[in-house]
Amino acid sequence: MASCQSCGITIMNRDEFGREKNGVIRVDYCKYCYDKGAFADPEITFEQMVEKVAAAMKTNKNVSDEAAMESAKKALDGLRRWQARH
Fold first, then answer.
1. pLDDT tens digits for 27-66?
2. Which helix (DSSP H) or strand (DSSP E) does residue 25 occupy?
3. Predicted TM-score (pTM) of this structure
4. Whether the Cβ atoms of residue 11 and residue 2 lie closer than 8 Å to each other
5. How would you class 52 by CB atoms within 10 Å of its CB: exposed for 0-12, middle for 13-18, buried for 19 or more?
């Protein structure tokens, strides 16, 4: 199993990996963040991604807004896509 280096989700199946334009699998990103050789949302900021991931956590894990935001920020902070922001 791998984790997407953009949103942090666990990639469990081959068809969940992102792909390059030529169809080659990109093992460091999921298909929701990276497809056909580009990020799905290239202009998204770290803060916007934190909000997006926190919203999914709230829905899927039934946690508070504050707990979801804190957890999302911690999870994303170490991912490759967001390292350049430091």
1. 999 999 999 999 999 999 999 999 999 999 888 777 899 9
2. strand 25-30
3. 0.87
4. yes
5. middle
